[in-house]
Design brief:
Elements lengths: L1 E5 L8 H6 L4 E10 L5 E4 L3 H10 L4 E6 L5 H16 L8 E4 L10 H17 L4 E6 H8 L9 E5 L13 E8 L8 E6 L3 H8 L25 H9 L6 H8 L3 H9 L9 E4 L6 H7 L4 H7 L13 E4 L2
Parallel strand pairs: 1-2, 2-4, 4-5, 5-6, 6-7, 7-8
Antiparallel strand pairs: 1-9, 2-3, 8-9, 10-11
Amino acid sequence: MKGFDISSYQKGINFNALKNAGTNFLILRAGFTGWGTGVNYNKDSAFETFYNQAKSNNIPVGAYWYSCANTYDKGVAEANYMYENCLKGKQFEFPIYIDVEDTHHQVGNKNGVTQAIIGFCETLENKGYYVGIYGSDISGFKDKMNLSQLDVYDKWVARYGSKPSYVKNYGIWQSSSSGRISGYNGNLDTDESYKDYPTIIKNGGFNGYSKQASVTPSTDKTNELDKYSDEELAKMVWQGKFGNGEERKQELGARYNEVQKLVNKGVGKETSDIVYTVKSGDTLSGIASRYNTTYQKLAQYNNIANPNLIYVNQKIRIPQ
């Protein structure tokens, strides 16, 4: 799916031209935190107009917030402002992102920025939103974040000219800043989506949508998840029973937010596991052979979607 991300810098862009150009989605800047103090919040002056025009032209939309947050509480504050002033009462078919690219407040503090991201994402998840993180492949995700703590969140990665190399799992690739459409004189950021976010979000009941009923609903069968406490479900997550990312959100449904909070705190994680740190040249099959197991088991146990993609310094848990 091909799309663009736009803000008030593209004010006046023709949405009929966007539609005629085959635009599959738009990610709109909802607002930004001013870098002067790092805590003054501003709604994008074109957001409401762009949102209404996208809806009128049946173009699916997501939204992002340009962040300056570098603590958990500041991430929460940005999310709350965004919800109250931009998201509330609307529906979005693509994720809601925290944009991490500030060069004033988000430099040299990976722990603080990582906690800010978690604060932002947890706050909006608790309000029923499907969230994600935007940043450049190297100067954002590598230099500003502890990526291993953010596995559960979708990634929108910017790298121009070639696909991301540091971030291995991502849903959207921002591939250039030189997109063009007929009738608009400026350049546009171009994006490629690899996930069917509209289906995921609508079926899951996220981003202002009501959860859609199953095609063959069962009215006399007790929900299987009701048999388990949140703590038991968290343990099952660590055991790989619900996958990760959007798969986990759909599997856990209304229980997702509370269970994921526990998972983020390490609740349910087996402490007797061996934890192996990936080194250059390692493969998952090689690690599995070293510990008399299989790469399939390690992939499932560690929620690794692609067994061929592991990275240096990644922590691999070896079940005992």
